[in-house]
Amino acid sequence: THQWRGIIEEYRDRLPVTDTTPVVTLREGGTPLVPARLLSERTGCEVHLKVEGANPTGSFKDRGMTMAITKAKEEGAQAVICASTGNTSASAAAYAVRAGMVCAVLVPQGKIALGKMGQALVYGSKILQVDGNFDDCLNLARSLSENYPVALVNSVNPYRIEGQKTGSFEIVDALGDAPDIHVLPVGNAGNITAYWKGYKEYAADKVSSRTPRMWGFQASGSAPIVRGEVVKDPSTIATAIRIGNPASWQHALAAREESGGFIDEVTDREILRAYKLLASQEGVFVEPASAASVAGLLKAAEQGKVDPGQKIVCTVTGNGLKDPDWAVAGAPQPVTVPVDAAAAAERLGLA
Ligand code: F0G
C-alpha cells in the first residue's frame, strides 16, 4: 500500500535537502485536482481546481512550511516567527510542534478569521495581536528575526518558495503537461512566485513542453500591484489577502511579464459570488480569499479575455471552514422541526 509521503519525500530531487536533513512533515501536498464542471461550461475551457484546503492545516502554506521548518531545524533554530493574516501562522504553529520548536506569531488585531486564530492557539503558539495591518506585522517580524534568536518563516524565506513550487509539479504530473493558464489569488505574492518557479523548472528539464500564462488577482481594496503603488490602509472581506505592500511584489511582476500573463483586481462582491458558486455548484468550500482566483477567471471570461478550448487551473488556496462566517451570513436560518417524519418530509418538500 502506498501513502503520499509529503512534498519533500515526493519531490526530494527537486528540493534543497540532503540525506541527513531532518524532514519535518505532516504529509502535506498530494491535494486533489478537481474538474470544475460549471466553470468549464461558463468559459468554454477545461477548468480544474487545485484544492489546497485539503492540506493538513487547511491551506497551501503547508507546502512551504514543511521546507522552512525542516531547514530551520537543520540549521539548529529553536524558535520561529512569522507575520500572518492567519494561514501562515496556523501552518507555522503546527510544523513547529512537529519540530519541537517554539513558534511566535504576529497577526493584525481583529483582522484574522476565527478558525485560523483557533489553530494558532490550539497548536500552542505564542500569539501577539499587533495594533496595525499585515504589512506592519511583517516589518516587526523581520526586525525581531534580525535582532533575536528566532528564524523568520514568512515567504521572504526562500525555502517557503521552494516548498510551494511543488504545487506546479503536482499539476503537471496529473495533467501530463502544463495548463495554458494558471490562476491564483495574490496577497503577499509568494505563491504566484513559487508556482512560476515550479513551472519554469519542469519546462527547463523537459518534464513539461511549455509554461502557462500566470493570472493573478488581488482584492480591489488591497490591490497595490494592480495600482502600481503601496496601499496604506488595505481593506477587503478576504482577510487572507488584505495586504498593501507585498513582499514578493517584484517577483510577481516577473512572473506576469515572463509568462505573458496579467494581474488584475476583483471586488469583494465578485469574490463572494465566486465563493458561493464554488460551494453550491462545484461542491468545493473555500475561504473568501481563495475565491479571488475563480472570481478573476469569471471576470476575464466576461471581458472576452478567455479563448475557448484552453486548459486552465485555478488554485483555491484555503479551506472554507477557516472562515465560515461568510457562509452563514445572509443565509436563511434552518427551520426547527419536531422528531416527526411527516413534519420533516413536509418541510423538505418531499411530501
Ligand atoms: N489565499 C490564502 C487563503 C492565503 O492565506 C494567502 C496568503 C493567499 C491566498 C495569498 O498568497 O501571499 O502567497 O500571495 N496568506 C498569508 C498568511 C499572507 O499570512 O497566511 P500569497
From TrEMBL:
Q: Does the keyword Amino-acid biosynthesis apply?
A: yes
What InterPro entries does UniProt report for this protein, alphabetically?
A: Ser/Thr_Dehydratase, Ser/Thr_deHydtase_PyrdxlP-BS, Thr_synthase-like, Thr_Synthase_bac/arc, TrpB-like_PALP, TrpB-like_PALP_sf
Which top EC class is named for this enzyme in its record?
A: lyase
Domain annotation Tryptophan synthase beta chain-like PALP: ranges: 24-318
- Reaction(s) catalysed (UniProt annotation): O-phospho-L-homoserine + H2O = L-threonine + phosphate
Q: In which pathway does it act?
A: Amino-acid biosynthesis; L-threonine biosynthesis; L-threonine from L-aspartate: step 5/5
Q: Which family does it belong to?
A: Belongs to the threonine synthase family.
Stated name of the protein:
Threonine synthase
User: What species does this protein belong to?
Assistant: Streptomyces endophyticus
